[in-house]
Write a structure and sequence with these properties.
single chain; two-stranded antiparallel sheet
Amino acid sequence: MGSLPPLSFAVSNGECLAIEGPSGSGKTRILRAIADLDPVEGHVFLDGTERREMAPQLWRRAVRYAAAEPGWWTDTPRDTLPISQATLPRIDRLISALGLAEDILDRPVSLLSTGERQRIALVRALADDPKVLLLDEPTAALDKSASALVEEMVRFQLLAGHCVLIASHDAGLIGRLAHVRLQLAPSDRTTKSKPDRTPPP
């Protein structure tokens, strides 16, 4: 994995930052570094606390990464979710809001479509209500109607005061959701567009 370019940026509560750039420019590496999944130099803060000052499991509970191609290590989705008496009602609401079947958690992962797996991975990411959501190409495998449900879910997270970072090639998605953009160049030269703090349409 190549090194990341020098970066300095902040994301406020209720704000969406879009990371843009061609393939190989580092969009996924940035999200994984923030999530403490890959080693990186420098500092990452959450509410004034530096990442290294928190136990890794606590950081990853608060700062959640949803991969473009989610991994599965069980036959059905159920055992990959943090299901408890406290989280089950939220999981049920997320499944419904994302247009998934009620029995989706007990279907074999091998029989789920790519879009179903991507939406279940978003349910998994949101199940215990993280403060920061890191989304890597969240609608790449979805049709128009499913993409609209995911966008609405992201808007709800923003209204709840959470931070959302999105890496995507979808200019329409970014235009509708992002408050500010981080543009990555293929040569690892990084530019940031002038922050626009006006909510997107």
